[in-house]
Amino acid sequence: MQLYSTSDLYLTAYLKSHGLPVVDYARDTQDPRRVNFFFEETPRRKELHKTFYNGGLVEIRSFINAIKDIKALTRNL
Questions:
Q1: In the chain, how many domains are there?
Q2: Can you give the residue range of the structural domain that contains 29?
Q3: What is the pLDDT of residues 12-52, one digit of tens each?
Q4: pLDDT per residue over 46-58, tens digit each?
Q5: CA 75, CA 69: separation in Å to the nearest integer?
């Protein structure tokens, strides 16, 4: 399984709010202030990535909940 990695909190929340699970997460070895989030590399992930950077929409409540979930994950590192 190939993985896609990002440290962008809002992209991670966007992907998560569209149903893509965070497969793993870890502190960045180069910059310990950053956390890398890993998703399975799929055509859907690629499409959502393009949509995100082209102004894609998401249900706000889902997006807010995803941000809260992601921040909770990072507190445990």
A1: 1
A2: 3-75
A3: 999 999 999 999 999 999 999 999 999 999 999 999 999 99
A4: 999 999 999 999 9
A5: 10
Burial status of residue 17 (CB atoms within 10 A of its CB: 0-12, 13-18, 19 or more): buried
Q: How many CB atoms lie within 10 A of CB 27?
A: 13
Q: How far is CA 9 from CA 1, 57, in A?
A: 23, 16
